[in-house]
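seq:
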Amino acid sequence: MGPKVGYDKYKEFIDKIHDKKNDIPEYISIIIREGKKKDIIDVKIRKLESNILKIMAHEQEKKGWYTHSYHIPLKNLGLDDDAKNKNILPYLNHPAKIMSDKTTQETVKELIEKYVEVISERKKHFFHTARYKAKKDYSGGRKMKGF
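struct:
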């Protein structure tokens, strides 16, 4: 099994759920932690209640699995398939606005508690969390030795 297999599987899945020609409902994707494409060796797709999909990924050198992303059907938010990111964002950052589906509301609330806020990406129906990238340490200069 080559190192690209896991990422290719994920890419194929993303193409399926964001393809207009498919008969499945339109999904929004919230990326939690991207990971390095070349390092992802396996991907698990878990179906939660209300057709919410949770993607778990496993990297080559690291132990265990991590949450890669969540995929939520747009109809669970009570929005049309052609809704723009700016219309979707308030529902993701304020889960109390989600009235059409209780499970989706609870899932989004958990995401906000864990990952602070959801931020829009350039691609349509793609988002990522505020704690998406590792925090950089900008404290430069000389460090004083501790006693």
